[in-house]
């Protein structure tokens, strides 16, 4: 029997966050889904933790795959997306596993909303897990800078953050996507490896005429950057800066591209100076060169 929704999540050093994730899953009243778990970890801890949680909740609607190497978030997401589409899922729910959600009807209400409105992409309100403030209530792509902006970040539930409506951007930490979108624009660009792959996907969906619905009544909490070491880690410094330049060069018109590249290089110079005489400065230099040299095809 076909499952209505394919859930896709990627593991990387995720053992500590999986209990909360699986507990949230276990409480859902909507069960017409298949869970695809792709493990990119370099050790077996996340895989074994996932096995333990699957056994704990006696889950049978799950496929757990351990990759032999870290293929990147984009490629691993594509593995799950393609498996879900091949299995006949109508929707793919891309979701992090460093998230938790209390509403037992979250999945069911999200799918019902998509059916009622005919929307092909839906994202909920996302909170910081540690302080309960908003992390993302929709957002925008600031193309002249090559960056994104989260609406409502570090705010409470103000009126402007509590209205359902269309938004230009949201990260794919929890995003329901109809199969039609993938059929038309394709899956994630695996050159990103990690970071900006979701920006690129949402940008392409916007360009194809799909609207992203921000669903203010849907709520999840996110343990931000729990797997990659935070935004200031050497790993994050390299990939976020390299991929920002790649995104700009790949997607923008010549005028916007030149301005955004110049803005990025100038602002990164100041950032580089902040980290001068540290190992992080080398990561900035390496990221800038890599981002400028990455082939676009």
Automatic annotation (TrEMBL):
Keyword field contains Transmembrane: no
Xref: InterPro entries: Glyco_trans_2-like, Nucleotide-diphossugar_trans
Annotated Glycosyltransferase 2-like domain residues: 8-185
Pfam families cross-referenced by the UniProt entry: Glycos_transf_2
GO terms assigned for molecular function: glycosyltransferase activity
Gene3D superfamilies: Spore Coat Polysaccharide Biosynthesis Protein SpsA, Chain A
UniProt entry keywords in alphabetical sequence: Glycosyltransferase, Transferase
Family as reported in the entry's similarity comment: Belongs to the glycosyltransferase 2 family.
Protein name: Putative glycosyl transferase
Species, as recorded: Duganella phyllosphaerae
């Amino acid at each position: 029997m076909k499952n209505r929704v394919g859930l896709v999540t990627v593991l990387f050093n995720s053992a500590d966050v999986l209990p909360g994730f699986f507990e949230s899953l276990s409480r859902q009243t909507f069960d017409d889904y298949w869970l695809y778990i792709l493990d990119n970890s370099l050790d077996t801890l996340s895989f074994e933790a996932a096995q333990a949680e699957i056994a704990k909740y006696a889950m049978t609607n799950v496929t757990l795959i351990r990759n032999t190497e870290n293929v990147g978030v984009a490629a691993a997401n594509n593995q799950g997306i393609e498996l879900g589409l091949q299995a006949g899922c109508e929707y793919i729910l891309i979701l992090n596993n460093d998230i938790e959600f209390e509403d037992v009807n979250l999945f069911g209400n999200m799918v019902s909303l998509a059916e009622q409105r005919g929307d092909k992409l839906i994202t909920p309100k996302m909170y910081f897990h540690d302080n309960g403030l908003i992390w993302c209530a929709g957002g925008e792509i600031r193309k002249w800078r090559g960056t994104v902006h989260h609406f409502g970040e570090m705010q409470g539930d103000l009126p402007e953050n509590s209205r359902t409506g269309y938004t230009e951007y949201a990260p794919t930490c929890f995003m329901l996507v109809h199969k039609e979108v993938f059929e038309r624009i394709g899956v994630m660009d695996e050159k990103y490896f990690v970071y900006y792959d979701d920006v690129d996907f949402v940008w392409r969906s916007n360009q194809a005429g799909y609207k992203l619905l921000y669903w203010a009544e849907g709520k999840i909490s996110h343990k931000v950057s729990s797997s990659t070491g935070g935004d200031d880690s050497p790993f994050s410094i390299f990939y976020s800066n390299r991929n920002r330049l790649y995104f700009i060069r790949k997607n923008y018109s010549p005028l916007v591209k030149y301005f955004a590249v110049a803005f990025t290089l100038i602002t990164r110079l100041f950032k580089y100076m902040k980290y001068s005489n540290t190992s992080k400065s080398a990561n900035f230099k390496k990221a800038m060169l890599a981002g400028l040299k990455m082939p676009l095809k």
